[in-house]
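Ticket #4471: structure output looks truncated?

Reporter: J.K.
Steps to reproduce: submitted the chain below (333 residues) through the standard prediction queue, then opened the result file.
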Amino acid sequence: MTQTIASSHAMTFLNRLTHLFERIDLRPTARGILAPLLAIGIFLVLWSVGARQVHTSLGVLPGPVQVWEQSVALWQEHRAERDREQAFYERLQKRIEKTQSPERVERLRKLAYSGRATFIDQMFTSLKTVATGFLLASLIAIPFGIVIGLNPTLHRAFNPLIQLFKPVSPLAWLPLVTMIVSALYVSKDPVFSKAYVTSAITVTLCCLWPTLINTAVGVSGVSQDLLNVSRVLRLGWFTKTWKIVLPSAIPMIFTGLRLSLGIGWMVLIAAEMLAQNPGLGKFVWDEFQNGSSDSLARIMVAVVAIGFIGLLLDRGMLGLQKTVDWDKQAVLR
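Returned output as attached by the reporter:
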């Protein structure tokens, strides 16, 4: 009964706050800033109130305060780990300076710090992996999409294969990719770890299709008048593609790139979790297996971080599109 009354009062307060906000005559810029802040504030209040009602085997579901405390704790753990790493290399340097044998000096120089990966380290590992997979997919999908978009015969030839493999979940590819990488990527001194290569290829497979399809659709939709102009001017294939086709297809190409990057980021976390490859997915799974009283809050920190990084990646792609798009007046969201 008490909770019902409290919820009723909270909703009444929010309704009054919303009406007050709508009645205030604000400039569009101020409204654009205050409206998201108000929505975030409402979300935090609802999260804080709702989390107290959920009791799990590890305790009460953490609210915003507990998540913030664990964010600070994870950052302090990262700083402490970096201090230990610096101290290790300082001790190593002193040993090297005191050593007379060149062979022993060479062995000491190959020593590397083997401390555990912190939350920040896992975050940068995931970012590096998704960047690699996304770039590989873009390097394949954009040129191939342009070729099949300009040639209807090639489009008809490859479209069944594209439609066949497009719905396949990248996670279904994960066991095959793992086996193939283990069989083919054999080296005594590998440049990249197998886990990194496996995750990057998995991301590539899921980033491929949105970019490929949107590029082909964008290129095939270029105005026939523009193509006729290229014929009148007797432009070569490369010049026509660079000067006419690509600028016209940029909005669709970037739509595909933004979709690919978002999907790649989501799939990477799941792939790291399933394959136990380094990254944020492994961090979430390790905390889930840890089962300590702080685990839930740490998982929530990872969830918020994953969402925030995904937002930044999308905003970055949007900014890049605004930079390269010829139509500076276009409204992009």
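Triage note (M.O.): checked the attachment and the full token line is present. The CA atoms of residues 74 and 119 lie 7 Å apart.
Status: closed, working as intended.
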